[in-house]
Amino acid sequence: MKKMVLIAQKDIAIQLKDRKAFLLLLLMPFLLTAILGFALKGVMEGESLPATVIGVYMEEDPLAREFVENYLQQDLTMLTVKVAATDVELKDWVNQDEVDVGIILPKEWGEQKTPAAILAVSGKESSALFTQQLTDSFAQTAWTMSNSTEKIMTNLAVAASYQDPAIQPGKVQAELLNGMKEVVERKGQYVEVASIGEREVSSMQYYAAAMAAMFLLFNAVRGGKSLHQEQHSATLDRLRMTPTRVDFILGGKFLGTWGLAFGQFIVFMAATHFFLGVDWGESAVQTLFIGLVYSFAVSGLAILIAAFSANEKTADTAGGIMVQVLALLGGSMLPLSAFPEVMRKVALVLPNSWALNSFTSIMNGATWASLGAAALVLLAIGAASIVIGSARMRVSALSGGK
Amino acid sequence: MLTMTNVKKRFGEQEVVKGITLHVGKGEAFGLLGPNGAGKSTTISMICGLVPYDEGDIQVDGLSVSRSPYEIKKKIGVVPQDIALYPTLSALDNLVFWGKMYGLKGREAKARALEVLETVGLVERGKDRIETFSGGMKRRINIGAALLHRPELLIMDEPTVGIDPQSRHHILETVKRLNEQGMTIIYTSHYMEEVEFLCKRIAIMDHGQVIATGSTQELCKRLAGGNQLLLDVEEVRPAFVEKLKQLDGVEKVMIPEASEIHLYIKQDQDMMASIVSMAAKEAVKLRQIKLKEADLETLFLQMTGRSLRD
Fold first, then answer.
1. Terminus of chain B with fewer CB atoms < 10 Å: N or C?
2. Distance (Å, rounded) from C-alpha A183 to C-alpha A141?
3. How far is A12 from chain B (nearest CA, A)?
4. Residue range B194-239, pLDDT digits in tens
5. Chain B within 8 Å of A3 (Cβ-Cβ)?
6. End of a domain among B220, B237, B271?
7. Last residue in a domain, options B198, B220, B242
8. How far is B35 from chain A (nearest CA, A)?
9. Between 3.40.50.1820, 3.40.190.10, 3.40.50.2000, 3.40.50.2300, what CATH number should domain A52-142+176-184 receive?
10. What global pTM score does this model have?
């Protein structure tokens, strides 16, 4: 056991002196998380409708004032309203792209005598259409209410002329006006956007987990190559010439890869948390636990890669391809939700997919019990890889390898 | 110290070691010679426990390699032909690591690593990375890594390949000193002068077998036509060459160049005077005549049909 630790320490010391490996294993996933997290923020967080800035110029008109002050300027997250002093100022804002769209509400707009004008430059058609529908909707509601009130009041006035004391036109008029005001001001409260699940995972969170799952896989390639390097440089033979069991040498190589992978995960987790503000969930212990068992699986794969590749170059090439394919199928490049059902089933056998799902579950507030299956699968993948890989190496050593 | 009894090794259908029997005494410096493919490396790998043998037995200090591999590995230090070191680690870190792999504890390993650096003459470079070293310096650390646990038997497989004369001299002196201190050495090399300098006894291997064992002198005595007379003439005349061939004691005549004649002669034959007078009679201008005594190179060539560096 002591010699296993010695070999692992030596491997870690060698790796820490390798700047190229440092760039690949730490800087790359960090940068990719930052780039993908920012780039896909809108797509992943339901912000495909951009926030619209509306510029308004209104002449003296009670309905226009109601529209701007009580309707547009209420707490709508997708809308920002700027009121211009003159129509010229508004046109300047539109031309200089200070607002997405402009509305001119002329005098007597409320009396349906003059139409409102929507101003937008080319490329802002969707914002213009959105604003037009918003304005039309308000105006039609207001006019409908106004016309209804007028009709009701006319009929009431006729009824009052028969001197029925139960009919009080003044009171009815006041109630109708209040009702109309309430309807107008409650705009936007009927429909709410809701996310499924306990908590929504942001794009930055998702890609931090995805990049961790992907880049930890590179340790399998590095670990596999490291065994070939030892073989190529005769240090493996020299290790075997020392009074050390072959199993312990292999165990030391495994332990070194495990330590490096887990170390990489801890550094990556800390860096993304402190520099990119990634929230890895409420339980850091859960995240570290999954990181640890995933690193175990990855280290097992390193033994498997070493056992089934002829040399360092093959391990590098085949391992590199394996990482890319696993990353793609396991959801590290695109979320699995974008994949067809068959592909999602394929992902169930991939260690990186289990790790990624576990990380995002923890971000969503997973329980320990819900992580059990993932932990068992990852441990099983690691153990199976070690058994198969070391058996294969033993066979190849006995059948003529020196 | 080392006894090999009828050791055989087969890789698939090919028998690469065909029943080797050898004995190397305690404190002895023993040379193992053989052309590439003779089975030297496999033999060394079997002694070190890297490759299991199929038949026979190898004993180191009375212990069987197949039954007590770990005890034996503690007694053996191996200097592999390749530089088996970690290039990005310092010389000291490398030595400390290998020392610990042989069971030395922390402080002891460091102290011993410093001693070894002293032995191989590289104390001042201890903290430098191996990758910054010259070939000769790497070879010296490669040897040092095998000395950390004070082995009783040091096996050196071509330890001076591709290095400068100064480093080679340093290495040979170090090995000689270690042997004088009582360490048993098994040394393989393509350089005959190294083997002759270090080893009192040698074994010549070819095609997986030991074809001769003994001291250099003993082996050279077995040579037929071991000595050579090298004649430098102005012109090689066929009549003169024919007469040389008929001389008593001449085994073979060769003409490697237009002005050179090589005579392979039996040892203890003095025929210089006869040749000089024959040249005068045949009007051959003899510019120089030189005797080259039988050496390991000649012996090796004669026994294996190949030069040692082939």
1. C
2. 9
3. 11
4. 888 899 899 988 889 998 888 877 877 766 556 778 899 998 888 8
5. yes
6. B220
7. B220
8. 19
9. 3.40.190.10
10. 0.70
